[in-house]
Amino acid sequence: MCSLTHRNRLRNNNPSILTCGVFLDLGIFVSRFANRRGSVVISCPADDNARTTGLPSNCGIPVLTTTPSDRFELGVALTAEFLLQERFGFSAFRGFQRDVIERTMCGGHSLVIMPTGGGKSLCFQIPACLHRDRWRSVDKNPGPRPLTLVLSPLVALMKDQVDALQAKGIDATTIHSLVSSEQRQQRYRAIAEGQFCIAYVTPERFRKQEFLEAISGRLIPLLAIDEAHCISEWGHDFRPDYSRVGDIRRMLGNPPTIALTATATVDVQRDILHQLHLPAIGSELDRCRIFHAGIHRPNLELHIAEVWDEDAKLSEIQGVLDRWSLGSGIVYFTLIRSLEAMSHRLSQLGIEHLVYHGDLQRQQRHAIQDRFMSGRNPLVLATPAFGMGIDKEDIRFVVHAEIPGSIESYYQEIGRAGRDGRPSECRLLYDQSDLMTQMEFLRWSNPEAAFYERLYEVLEQQNDAVSSFGMEWLRGRLCNPKQSDRRLETALAMLERYDVIASPEDCLRMQVLRPLPIELADPRSRGEKLLRDQRKLYAMVEYAKGPDPRAFLEEYFQPADAS
Predict the structure, then answer these.
(1) How far lies 532's CA from each of 375, 529, 537, in Å?
(2) Nearest-CA neighbor of 439 among 530, 527, 524, 357?
């Protein structure tokens, strides 16, 4: 019997109200039609004598009887399986999706680590629909309408998922910086009025008072954190605003929480739980349970080719293109200038392709992504800015023309290949000289304590000059302006994260609010962070030189309880 039936009894012992909307273990089928009196027909495999008043008594499940109302849809999907099949188009759950959904509906917390394309999103999308359907099934005083909040780091990622949900008839929305002011106000009003069962936002949205007022009248039954590795400073894609998520949980009243990622080492897993204030020990529902699906992707062919110059890289790329004439592919570069140089050579050979990097205008990037996703241009040369949220099934190859900065980044990027389960190639072109580029990147992403102190001093003592002369003047005071030094951008983001400076609309009018925190001013702490990142790069070198790529990845991401 479903464990949920023991925990979710009829609200106020009213036999006409079914509060448990998930029966995952009994194979219950809810008919899509109703008789003239409006009673929903429900049957159970344990007794073929279906009754309009509910389930057979030997099922041990509360009876549902209802009449049509403006809050109850006849034929509503009361089971996760029904939603999975009818709304999402899948015949059965994969892996531990069923277990995660049941735990979520019981009010438990989960950290879900699942390979790219493994179906992480269903673990919170189906509960969002079930919470909505449960609310609709209550006839009297159901309370505030539920709204599942999903935190996501990228606008493109949110837009794709919301578009897909809306196409399935699910009332989802997203609010982000690219939405016009008029659209944003309309969506705020709609949320406040009880529309939508799921909303995608970035963590920055919780700084906006209008958003907080819009959700203040809604019940938040679930907080989902997509790409949860962005929370951890130990992770490969740390985003300062994501480290506020623990405070956001408290602001929302510590609702049941599900964090999801494709990549997380044991250290990153622990840091995610710490940052979210989720206990790793305690009672079954109070503690956060880790669901780790491993990294096994048998359809991905992992290859490493040692190269010595750009001619060798071109030859390797041509070989991959010859092997995979059908389907799409991505060739990743670390540097824009390397990407553009290879693009020029491919163009000379008559090989059509797209080029994607962070220096392009936002509209250009969206247009390029759309052309790739539609299949009009199946080949793209890109920096790591391209890919998060790319849900394209027929990517047949991913080539890394330059070594990534960490195993986590590499695994995240190759995970975009072969989502349809068919054979796909992942090829790393290892050139030892590329390591110098990554070493520079590590220095830029890890400003030393002395840099933070100089920046703080300039902002505090010469704030008017910063406002008057701009970012380049500030950069000239702290960095070598002739180098592509990104320490200033990193340091400003961290100062904002620690509330040292305000976040005004005009980024040059930065008001210093408080002293520099010890986390940024301590040379030892900064040095340890740099050393951790250097070790990640060294692990990438070990992978490139090792005899068995798959075995190396499995050992690197080994779950904590497997060691």
Answers:
(1) 39, 5, 9
(2) 530
